[in-house]
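Field reference: "sequence" (input) and "structure" (output). Example, TonB-dependent receptor:
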Amino acid sequence: MKTISALKFGTALASLSFAALHALPVMAQQDSGSGLELEEITVTGSYIRTPRQKDRPSPISVIGQDQLQDIGAADIADLTNTLTINNGAQNNPDAFTQNLTTGTESINLRGLGLASTLVLLNGKRQVNSAAPSDDGILFVDTASLIPMIALERTEIFKDGAAAIYGSDAVAGVVNFITRDDFEGLELKAEWQGNTNSSQNDFKIEGLWGGGNDRTHLTVAASYLDRSQLTTRERDLRPDAFIGPNGLSVSTLTSTPGNFIPLTAPRSDLNPALAPLTNIFNAGFDNAVPLFNFEGIGPVAGTPVIANPFGDGFLVGSFGGFQFQSPDIADPNNPASFLSGADGIQDAFTGTVLPQLLAVSPGLIDPSLANFNIAGLAPDQQAALQSAFGQLIAATDAAGFDTLLVPDPNCAAAAAIDSDVVPAFSSVTDPLTGQSVDVGACQYDFGKFFNLVPRESRLQGYASLNHEFNEKAEFYGEFAFSRNRAQRETSNFPITSPIALLPNNPFNPFTGAASLFIGRSAGVGQTTGDFFTDSPNPNNFRHDTYRVVAGVKGDITDQWYHDVSYTRAVNDYRLTSSDGLALQTNLALNGLAGQGCNPAADTPGTGNCFFFNPFGSGALADEGQQVPVTDLSGNVLLDDAGNPVLVPVLNSADVIDFITGDITLDGRSDLTVVDAVVAGSLFDLPAGPIGVAFGFQYREDGLTHDLDDDTNKGNFLFVSAGIDDFTASRDVFAFFSEVNIPLHEMIELSAAVRYEDYGGAIGDTLDPRVALLFTPTDWLSVRGSYSTSFRAPSVFQQFGNQTSLNSVIDPRDPTAQPFIAINTRGNEDLSPEESTNFNIGFTATPVAGLELNFDYWNFDFDDIIIREQPEEIARRALIASDPNFDPSLIANGSVTLGPTGGLTFISSQFINAVGIKTDGFDASAQYSYDMSFGTLRAGIEGTYINSYKAPVGTGNDVIDVAGFRNSQNFASPIPELRFNANVGFSTGGHNLVAFVRYTDSFKDDQNCGGGDLPSDFVGSDPVSLTCPGGLDFAKVASHTTVDLQYSFSFGPHGPMEGASFSVGAINLFDNAPPFVNTDGGFESRTHDPRGRMAYVRLISRF
């Protein structure tokens, strides 16, 4: 953090002004003999007016209307995705990495983060979206700016600009300029459709402008209707990765579910599990005592499984299966278990065991023949040994080391719904001939998501300019955006343990208590029906309003002023549904219902209802009933002495009772007051010295208000409580800028900005110096150096969010569970600081040819990142990790589920060491006029030489250029991206083609690779290495071709001013490269849609 005194700031400003006033004159004279007067304009990156935009010592790209039309850009995201300097913008909705931001669009210059690019509209700031990214970043939603028809041009300042614009301009500035001087009426209609599916966009827009000599009004409006593209329609995973019944992304938290028996499988209590009795008990001669509490005092501590490594089973001495077996790091450490007064207490059921035994997975090996069951012949022992091996193999095949028993209705459900996939096998007791199913009922949730969400956007923009007199002009802007998006998901799994008592009336495992692993019936789906294609809709609402009012004008012939006020607000709402934990537990015990009194009423009677979590709850016949018993097996009687009978089929009332609405209401607001005075001091021989002085006050705030059940953590999927919060801050800034023509060939620019945030953030002083050298008319050389500053957002300081991400389990690299990640704010964060420089040139050696080249370098310190979930899990679970801290489980930072798997990780925002990145931008554009038309050709590209980013705890830095970076702060960094184009126009005809190339990169989440899922294993996200000498899986390079033909009817005739365009984006339908992750592609880099055809009609009056 920088702390700058007022005296130091004043000295800096005075020094800058002194340099401007006392710059020495040089020999060259300004050429004024042409008689041509150029209009002076203000260019992005400077407040000093200049006659030509190219006379700037910094790299700037300008994308005009014609270029937007050529690339077929229907919205700003289409433009952003074509920029080679953009890396990691979140413009392709992804339910697995973008939980809250569906319906938004963003820009990420240089891959330095969504908040490191300053987005301006007509040179003024825009409010951040109230929806943070999964990394907790607040950013400007470019989908909520203005109608595209109102966009005149886009200016991209590809250099640090904090000295001019303040915080957030670390990687650069993108300034959207509107068509405020438009005269007439323009109407546009556009259709864009996916040639592989029914997904399409339809958009209509209008623009009107008019006025008189002193007043001008421009009004624009647009409406977009976008249909969805689901993963069911377009599965991007190769056929080899799609298993039985089209299984693409499977889970054991299925519908119907799976069960872990918690008590001994005794045949007198559990007929359905009786075959397991002999098979399991036969293995006890190979059981190894892990810990015996006899004679040792009880030690309170962490849950039963504190160190869940390995492949064996953890069991009670009485023969009951319990949880996944760890190879206990220290068997003699009683703190590894939660102990009761007389032994080891099961953390979920409360059962007290006198000792724990570990059944070795080595029992699968036939060479082990030390079975010694009293009274059994050797052949019977061998048969039991073989059966025990089958039991373990069946359990392993299901994906768990713990004994798992599928819902008896799994096969029947699979016959109705192809997303239910039986993945179990039958194991037979060789002594009795009885069989039992062991394994899992799997569920394919991968087909319930959107590659393109259903969306509608209604947007408007108006500008008013009124000239009071020759010295003063009023300007005002109003913009609004009403965006609605709906993203489909599957019904949510239950991550909190749900215990079923032995007397549950629907329990097919009579007398057996068990843990239920599955999904709450009907949540987000057709009421009372497990088996339906109807997904769980998440609805997103984004409403944005922006007002600007200002006065500008000339003070003298040499000086102008601009004073303005900006107020902008973004209102955000997310709604979804999930099962309620308290209500579900009541319903499992027959106490569901609005009029039920759990303390006094009899379960299943009167206003009290049962919830049936088994498959029979959806498959039973209407009217089928079963009796209710107590824990002793006695049938309950109602007040009339009749048996209490309850329906097997779940009713709508029960489903409604256990289902709750998740609601997040957010508001982000921004207030800005700007004042700028600029002009020229005096003339040097090479030209006038230009200066600018300014002041800015801004206040930004953020509020998140969640429903009561989310506050309390009362949902079954995201079970962590999340607090409401509201926060705001204000910033005062002063800045100065000078432009000195030292020589007709040399121009020096300098700027300095002081910002004061107060409080823990403090203040900062950021300078910028740039030099432009123009030795000839066809060559200019530029260089710049600056520092930048980005304060932590109010969300990073005070916010709290839970997102859902795929995380590598450090105990098993092949396991990548989809779990909840909670991220908390950190009031002690320091601001980020950056130093960057740029060296480049522009050359026009022959007529029609322009060459540009720039080397850029950013050194970004104290970057704010979310603690990496994999790193937290590793510190909590891997004893050999140098930062091993088992207290992370005890304090709730890492939560393990009933099978020992990861279910929840809590993290916070931290300052990491920083990012160092450098690379090259290059472009060549050529235009040649011929007698029969004009030929155009060009190429532009970006090469990233290095990108050193923090990994692990944030203190280690590794070069991640050329990596996907799913396990660290960075975005995917393909080292090379380029666009090549060729076009020809004649008369009103125009034909243009683009070739877009994205380099291959390594997948840091997956090692190995091949034709089958089993060919992939997880990596070490801390060291960025692969186990066993494997190399990282490769995400292939990607090349697409865009083609467009357009025709303009010209200024005469009945179609005067009209034009139409037809084209295709990704003409050859090149699918995005496969990535072995949920969804099958990298959403931050590649477009999942495939070929998109479009037609555009424009009429001008």
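The domain at 41-230+452-487+542-574+662-723+734-792+830-863+912-1100 is CATH 2.40.170.20 (Maltoporin; Chain A).
DSSP finds 14 helices and 55 strands in the chain.
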